[in-house]
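Subject: Sanity check before I submit

Could someone independently write out the structure tokens for this chain? I want to compare against mine line by line before I put it in a report. The sequence has 253 residues.
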Amino acid sequence: MTIEGVEFKEKVFTFGAKFGSYMSLFISNLLLTIITFGIYSPWFLTNMYKFFATNAKQGEHNLEFKGKGSDLFIIILVSLIIPMMVVGGVMFIGNLSGGFMNALMQKEIPEMSGWVIGLLFFAIVSIILILVSFAYYFYKWCVNLTFKGYEIKFETEFWPSVQQILIQVALSVITLGVYSPVASLRLFKYFAERTVARKDSLVKKFGYNLDTTADFLKIWGQFLLCIVTFGIYFPWAYCKISDYILRKTYVEE
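---
Independent answer below. Compare away.
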């Protein structure tokens, strides 16, 4: 329904797959993921992305997802699992050498307070950086499509992108989530403007017309309607927010 609700240059997309073919693909990939204790999950996700992309068409042209499961496996391993294991190892060693858990449970030991705070600060900061880094590489992996001969990819740099994500996340946390719609749209604008479609010498860039105040009021208005209706309004909110954002998203000619 979402795909068929998208229009580009007055032409709507269609989705040709049947529910049965989706369930067949989903169940077979789910079983492989379970059998391999989760190792197959990157290929599972890749196959699902390809399924929806291939069946999304505008006229005779369809999207094609070019991401590889092996690339996603490496991203998960190198930017998520290994760093988390390192942080866990440091915390474990810190516990053994400095009595971390003992200090945490017995707050009356003054000489341990600095050690506890230091380890907790290290863990929190490290986990945030790991998750933000993983999010960057994951979404860069996601934006790898072809359409009408154009290759659509992120053209971004790691540190500036991570900095942008951290700033918006920090502002959302500081404001207790009030700022989060604007934070999401600022990130959407940042990465949209760095999404490029290339075909030979032709280059098209994406963008988003951000109006901070209007966007904030529009999205929070829809959120509040969901809250006061105990979630009943959510389908209308989803459609209105999606329509609002997509109408302000553009491709440069």
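---
OP: Matches mine. For the report I'm noting this point. The mean pLDDT is 91.
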